Amino acid sequence: MGTPHDRRRRQLAFGALSSSGLAAVDVLWRSARAQQAAPGGPMRVVSVGGALTEIVYALGAESVLVGTDTTSLYPQAAQRTTKVGYARSLSAEGVLSLRPTVMLASSEAGPPTVLAQLQSAGLRLVRAEPGYGPAALLANVERVGEALGRAREADALRAQLDTQWRETIARLRGAPGGARPRVLFVLSHVASNVQVSGANTAAAAMIELAGGANALGGFNGYRPLTAEAVVAAAPDAILTTAQGAEALGGADRLLAQPGLALTPAGRARRVLALDALYLLGGGPRLPRAVAELARFLGTLA
Amino acid sequence: MNTLAAPARVAVTDGRVRRLPPALALSGGALLLAVVAVLAIGHGAYRIAPLDVLRILADRLPGLDLAVDPQQAAVLTAIRVPRVLLAVLTGAGLAVAGALMQGLFRNPLADPSLIGVSAGGALAAATVIVLGAQLAPGLLRAEPWIAALALPLAAFAGSLAVTALVYRIGAAQGVLSLPLTLLAGIAINAMAMAGVGLLTYVATDEQLRSLTFWNLGSLATGTWTVLAVLLPLLALALLGALRLAQPLNALAMGEARAGHLGVDVRRCKRAVVVLAALATGSLVAVTGVIGFIGLVAPHIVRLLCGPDHRVLLPACALLGAVLVVLADMAARTVVAPAELPIGILTAALGAPFFLALLLRRRAAGSP
Is the pLDDT of residue A230 over 80? Predict the structure, then answer.
């Protein structure tokens, strides 16, 4: 996607001749921009999706990153990149204004019209493998590595993640007593309504990978649940995000909520709060997150 | 429609205030819209120098082959220009729908987004998105253009049903009770939005993504395909509205007097309901609910040019277009490279305007 910059400079001269003050401001802007974007067109990458951004950093390719979305929070440095907004409501022109050559897009990225417009503007769109778990992670590492011209680093990272993953599952054993512990994932807690995970969610996938069973499987996605339904679900352990626990004033406060307090998990005070992106992102920290969750559930040897 | 255009000229004049001459108002409005549209095409998150904009547009003319940056050209012709055109259509359509409804209800507070007409359209469109696959599985997948047309048509039907319902509840024996009309509209608005909420609840993640924008609206859906579907529908609504100008002027003096002046009142009212719903519904299906344009634009035009619908309707179309083009320009540049939902901007502008209108009417002693 090399943009002919010699001609652009010529156009700058043309622009300066135009009498309008607006045009002059525009031209100043453009020359400032033109200096930023070096000629010859090096790779410029926008990454939409926390896990994809983590992979970019893990491959040591952050120098090509020109923008990320608001879910790209790890590592710390990713928070200082230019933000193109929320993954699901991207702006075609906004993304293109960063003059990217490649966009890495999670399966959440959209709206579809905008993605189609970005592609028709010549942007190379690399979609993440949908789904949760190690298979999707390894596929994404490969895709990002290939798109960024870092296939060798990607192979090394894949091998490393694969080893980590094998070590984790080798140590997984059933919980004492044989049955899988029932885990309730609490996304947020407002008044006495808890937003919990059903089937086909990242949270449910993580719980199952760690040897637990999702306490609620009768519906897809995240749903609000009344305090009574929480008691009826009878979870042995409660899992939540650090962000959700913080909003409530700590994991202990979560257990004090009506409903949650009356569950086996509440009585035994078994609650774990993990960073949302670490737990649900499906990024390179996935094997570690699964191991940490399994240790908490008592399913790790 | 001949009987509608037949009645003698009904001049609605107001001697106390000086008005803009109609010719000046309309040509001024057209000029303003042209200037604003050019500005909007020249501005966006992606910087394209004014001269390059001209070069890219000129490059599209037959016989000219200027060297243009392909990515700049793609941004301009595939993203920005259709979006600005969609803003023009949206503003014109919503403002005219507002003016029509205000003429019908004889109340300057009637606005499609306030009395549930937009929400009715949104509910119908949401139903198609969420339940369409179950209700008519083969139909939506068969041809892309059927799906493209199904949404605006469903939204039109939803808007039509709400407008007719609000009118039925508000009118008793041909006399409209204005507070009743507004309250009925608000109740139906709440019901429709609750329906959208329910559909959001049962929607899959995939469908949810196409649902969420309806609460705040967005013009990011503006593509040439969308414009091709919308243009005939809106052209029909706008041209039809212009033909209703004289009957609406007569209607402003009351239905009985309009009848004496030779207006087929029932037919006129039905035409207003259908056209306002057509404009609102087809737009809602594409842009989501964008509030207050139908309230603000007609009100400003009435202040400047008076209540004569022959001037009011075309001037509204121009001013509404100007307002939406400006609001969308702000929406896509203020937090660039991200984007603000345009509904936040029009509500922030329109809601205080609505309150000021209420306060003035209270001071004047009318409900």
Answer: yes
Give residue A96's domain range: 4-159
pLDDT confidence band for A72 (50 / 70 / 90) = very high
A166 part of a folded domain: no
According to the 3-state scheme, what is the secondary structure of chain B? Answer: CHHHHCCCCCCCCCCCCCCCCHHHHHHHHHHHHHHHHHHHHHCCCCCCCHHHHHHHHHHCCCCCCCCCCHHHHHHHHHHHHHHHHHHHHHHHHHHHHHHHHHHHHCCCCCCCCCCCHHHHHHHHHHHHHHHHHHHCHHHHHHCHHHHHHHHHHHHHHHHHHHHHHHHHHHEECCEECHHHHHHHHHHHHHHHHHHHHHHHHHCCHHHHHHHHHHHCCCCCCCCHHHHHHHHHHHHHHHHHHHHCHHHHHHHCCCHHHHHHCCCCHHHHHHHHHHHHHHHHHHHHHHHCCCCCHHHHHHHHHHHHHCCCHHHHHHHHHHHHHHHHHHHHHHHHHCCCCCCCCHHHHHHHHHHHHHHHHHHHHHHHCCC
Mark whether A188 and A145 lie in a shared domain: no
Mean pLDDT, range A86-114, rounded to an integer: 90
A31: buried, middle or exposed (CB in 10 Å: 19+, 13-18, 0-12)?
A: middle
Let me know whether A154 and A289 are in one domain: no
Based on the structure, what is the number of domains in chain A?
A: 2
Quick: pLDDT tens for A238-253. Answer: 999 998 888 888 888 8
Residues A155 and A273 in one domain: no
**pLDDT over threshold 70, residue A17:** no
| Residue in A3, A18, A94 closest to B71 by CB | A3
Number of A to B CB contacts under 8 A, please give it: 121
Q: Given this model, what pLDDT does residue A20 score?
A: 44
Q: Which run of H or of E encompasses B125?
A: helix B117-135
CATH number of the domain residue A248 falls in: 3.40.50.1980
| Nearest CB partner across the interface for B51, out of A7, A14, A33 | A14
Residues A19 and A145 both lie in one domain? yes
Position A173 in a domain:
no
What are the pLDDT digits (tens) for B240-266? 999 999 999 999 988 888 989 999 988
Kindly state the average pLDDT of the residues A275-299.
94
Q: Map residue A186 onto helix, strand or coil.
A: strand
Chain B closest CA to A296's CA: distance in Å? 30
- All residue ranges of chain B with pLDDT < 50 are 1-15, 367
Q: What is the value of ipTM here, to two decimals?
A: 0.72
Cβ separation of B44 and A83 shorter than 8 Å?
no
One domain, residues A207 and A271: yes
pTM exceeds 0.80 = no
**Quick check: A19 pLDDT over 50?**
no
For position A175, what pLDDT does the model report?
60
Claim to verify: residue A188 and residue A270 sit in the same structural domain = yes
Give A22's contacts in chain B (Cβ within 8 Å). 50
Residues in A closer than 8 angstroms to B332, CB to CB, are 91, 93-94
